[in-house]
Amino acid sequence: MGDIRLVVNGQKNVVKEGIRYRELATKHQANEGHDIVLAFVDGKLCELNKRARRDGEVRFITTAEKIGNQAYKRSAIFLMIKAVRDVVGKENFDTVRVMYSFGKGYYCEIAGYDKEITSELLDRVDARMKELVAENVDFEKESLSTDEVIERFKKQGMSDKEKLFKYRRVSRANIYRVKDYEDYFYGYMVPSTGYVKYFKLIPYDAGFVLQLPVTDAPEVVPEFSPHEKLFKVLKESDDWGVKLGVDTVGSLNDAIASGDIGDLMLVSEALQERRIGEIATQIVESGKQIILIAGPSSSGKTSFSHRLSIQLRAHGLHPHPIAMDNYFVNREDTPKDEDGKYDFECIGALDVNQFNKDISALLAGKTVELPTFNFQIGQREYRGDTLTLGKEDVLVIEGIHGLNPELSKSLPDEKKFRIYISALTQLNVDEHNRIPTTDGRLIRRIVRDARTRGNTAQMTISMWNSVRRGEEQNIFPYQENADVMFN
Q: Which of 184, 191, 288, 300 could form a disulfide with 417 if both were Cys (CB 3.0 to 4.6 A apart)?
């Protein structure tokens, strides 16, 4: 094998053909502020254990980037499952279920384990994880035919993965191995266990939380801050998935293949409608007149507000949906973020004073002309839409800042009923691979923006990091203020 030329982060390198990108990363690690875990080679993502075979351009990815952080978390989950097997004994439980994102980590349960998940047990799992980190064992990858993968997982009793690959259309798949344990993960991994240095196991409810670093501070495990109301909704969502028999993609494919998908959709709708009806009953019994609905982007706030309004009408009330988006300031007055781009997610993008003035006037029995925001031209318009509240009238107000006290600062608290809504994903790829709720919301927003705001998918995706940053700052801190939560 001869020499090849690689341009690494702008620097020219002459290296031996067949060198692992991992070895190359070690030489360039001093130039990075955080651990290198993946690489883009000629624009294509690859793992560091891959070997360089030809000239090319390389850009290393660290844990401070989203895709690097995801690889780190994926690898930490793999390491944790291996450690649980070693400590508990694979014959003493069925599987580790990685159920949903919670806190800054993942809530997990040990299915089929008949003992309590104690701090002492988790300390032993933690110690085993650290032993594996110290050993720096490679995450080995093997490419197998789909039939071989199915047979292997069948022997291991991993029915969720067996179902998943039964419907796989490609002929081959990659599985990963650490020592004697192998598994399938949807996405790339870090090179070895030695990279997974930062984690914490915290007992919670019937399971535990695997707490992991975020991109902003990839060497720090953040403090665990449980959100009790959100957890209850997550748990309810998971229970629904189990009851309906569609908690994984393989199970959903079974329902589709068997022709049961129509009934499944009807049952899901019935469950949703029943829950909305329960919330409507709570509102009626509370006697409150201002219903504030908040949630992250594309979580279903507008659709929910209209469905809730139907249920309120069934109780004899006259609901009036109001979209907070109509109180956007004109485009040229919108605040900008640190990148100089319009920050549509901050509360300063709304005319809070005008909103409070209008709602206060309505509560006082006055007639108010409500605005409509024209997203095509970025201007607030008045089209003669007036409203006067009667005795049985209620306001159904939806927007991302609905639970922020600043939004309704001039309105009486005793008249507010607060609802937090999110499109939480109950469906996982399998028991170890989650489908992030944020991915589902991004797809929903792409469709919404194309249909109603004239944005291309590329425009929506380019804004998504700003949207997510705004959610962390302006929405999630207030979610526990809700009277009720709805998925």
A: 288
Residue 271 DSSP SS3: helix
Residue 479 vs residues 8, 174, 291: alpha-carbon distances, Å: 44, 39, 15
316/299 Cα distance (integer angstroms): 27
In sequence order, which residues have a C-beta less than 8 Å from that of residue 280 and are 6 or more positions away? 308, 311, 312, 314, 315
In angstroms, the CA 342 to CA 324 distance is 18
Residue with tokens 């789909």: 146
CATH 3.10.20.30 in the chain, residues? 3-62
Longest alpha-carbon distance in the chain: 85
Q: Where in the chain is the domain with CATH 3.30.980.10?
A: 68-233
Instruction: Report pLDDT digits (tens) over 149-174.
Output: 999 999 888 888 999 999 888 889 99
CA 288 from chain center: how many Å? 32
The answer to whether 438 touches 424, Cβ cutoff 8 Å, is no
Q: Which CATH architecture has domain 3-62?
A: Roll (3.10)
Look at strands 105-111 and 172-178 and give their pairing.
unpaired
CATH number of 68-233: 3.30.980.10
| Cut 0.90: pTM above it | no
**Do residues 252 and 68 touch, judged by C-beta distance below 8 A?**
no
Q: Alpha-carbon distance 161 to 153, whole Å?
A: 7
For residue 358, the SS3 value is helix
Sign of torsion, CA 209 483 428 63? negative
CA distance 54 to 56: 6
Query: pLDDT tens across 294-313, in order?
Result: 988 888 888 899 899 999 99
Sequence-distant (≥ 6) Cβ neighbours of residue 467 within 8 angstroms: 297, 345, 445
CA torsion sign for 350, 354, 360, 365 is: negative
CATH class of 243-486: alpha beta
What is the rounded distance in angstroms from the CA atom of residue 466 to the CA atom of residue 463?
5
State the DSSP code for 399: -
Which residues are CB-neighbours of 30 under 8 A, at least 6 positions away? none
